[in-house]
Design brief:
It is built from seven helices and six strands, in the order βαβαααβαβαββα. It is of the alpha/beta class.
Length: 235
């Protein structure tokens, strides 16, 4: 008599998508991303990584991505039409599918000008497609297509931890990140986790850099219980 298959064979692995934006492969930011990925894999996550610079991602949302665009180009109108017609650019469709498949989205980047690098902002412009992740048949926030999924920012800064905070030189980090946390991630439905940050890695010696990478691994070991950010929006 054939034995029943082990129940573990039918366990669905949690999935994570890491979207990484740093132009230097030997950077601390890249090492930090790999530490996070390793930690997730150690926990049984099925992890996919999109390395935007390595992939030569084009960050510009323009007419070239919509061959049938009307004379007057309105990007979100064209996104919705392409989404409804199944006519999104292949690279956008592939990354959008990866986005939907992921229980957890990790945006990995250095904080430049208190914000995202342009290539990552351009990825969001092109992949957070109106009509697919929000708008059209989808609402906003808890009615958007990615409701129930989680997202976290994995960041390096140029300044030390002492330079961020109330009354500090650069102000409160969460204030700088609000447009990402709320205006991008929460807007399309994500439950947004507290960011994971290494402050000023360029100023750390080798031992402290190693310790910082270990700390990132440890932070991601606790990702399932990491605190959610709360927002005052009525959504």
């Amino acid at each position: 008599m054939n034995s029943l298959p082990d129940a573990a064979e039918h366990t669905v692995k949690p999935t994570a998508l890491i979207v990484h934006a740093h132009p230097e492969p030997q950077s601390f930011s890249n090492a930090q991303m790999r530490s996070a990925r390793s930690s997730l894999q150690d926990q049984g996550y099925d992890v996919r990584t999109i390395n935007l610079h390595e992939n030569g991602w084009s960050p510009v949302l323009d007419r070239s991505g919509f061959p049938s665009a009307s004379t007057y180009f309105k990007p979100q109108v064209e996104q919705m039409a392409a989404a409804n017609a199944g006519a999104l650019a292949p690279e956008v469709r592939a990354d959008l599918d990866a986005l939907f498949d992921a229980d957890l989205l990790v945006l990995s980047f250095p904080l430049w000008w208190f914000s995202l690098p342009a290539i990552l902002k351009g990825w969001i412009d092109r992949v957070f497609v109106m009509g697919a992740v929000f708008g059209g048949d989808h609402g906003l926030f808890d009615q958007a297509a990615l409701a129930g999924h989680k997202a976290v920012l994995l960041i390096t800064t140029g300044g030390s931890s002492d330079s961020f905070g109330e009354g500090s030189r650069f102000g409160v980090l969460d204030t700088h990140l609000f447009h990402i946390h709320f205006g991008m991630l929460r807007f399309v439905g994500y439950e947004v986790l507290e960011p994971i940050v290494t402050y000023g890695p360029a100023h750390l010696d080798a031992d402290n850099r190693k310790a910082a990478l270990s700390a990132i691994h440890d932070e991601f070991e606790q990702i399932a219980t990491r605190s959610l950010l709360s927002f005052t929006s009525p959504a």
